[in-house]
């Protein structure tokens, strides 16, 4: 079945550092790809998404590009802030299928 | 803005009790979902529904049931709570159009502890 693999972390960075969280996927169809973020004590919020190959999703300084050739959707941010500390989930879904979530990556940003 | 609300943020129950978790969405979404979230396991789908009175089993339905009597409300029921059902429970909703490809919107979660 479809699956998502992402680095589990925790990832600890200093403020203003560059962030990459890797995500790769396995899917039989042409999935849509998502990054969700979960702040402490809260539910998941959509961060960004991409629905076809070479699409770039972006939001709040975060970016991810749908790479079909490498089956990847890595999350990047040029300069992280303390307020970005959260758990990040990569996910996919294809038409008629339920969402498949990765295990989540905990990010801690130190001042 | 889409709003998904859950009846409780924190809940403590005893083994054997019947537990109801309520979820309400205000965006007229057709699809609703219940997940549980456990450390190291990510999110696992318990049940979902794509219409009133319709329900489908997810990956881990054992020990749970659901009810959807109205479009905006989706209830998760633990018939006889057990300690291994201690977890964070997340409700989500999405539109039917492009089913499976549309964004899911999540509630804040209910942290359930079964003693």
Describe the structure.
The complex is a heterodimer of chains A (111) and B (115). With 111 residues, chain A is an all-beta fold. Chain A is 0% helix and 50% strand. Chain A has strands at 3-6, 11-14, 19-21, 23-26, 32-38, 44-50, 56-59, 62-65, 75-77, 86-93, 100-101, 105-110. In chain A, strands 2, 5, 6, 10, 11 and 12 form a 6-stranded mixed beta sheet that branches. Chain B contains no helices and 11 strands. In chain B, 37% of the residues are buried. The mean pLDDT of chain B is 91. The interface between A and B is medium-sized, with 25 and 22 residues.
Distance from first to last alpha carbon of chain A: 41 Å
Mean pLDDT of chain B: 91
What pair of chains forms the biggest interface? A-B, 25 and 22 residues
Shape of chain B: globular
Secondary structure class of chain A reads mainly beta
The largest sheet of chain A, given as strand count, sense and whether it forms a barrel, is: 6 strands, mixed
Mean pLDDT of chain A: 93
Count of alpha and pi helical runs of chain B: 0
Give the terminus-to-terminus CA distance of chain B: 37 Å
Shape of chain A: globular
* Spans of at least 5 consecutive residues with low confidence of chain B: none
At a glance:
The complex is a heterodimer of chains A (111) and B (115). With 111 residues, chain A is mostly beta strands. Chain A is built from no helices and twelve strands.
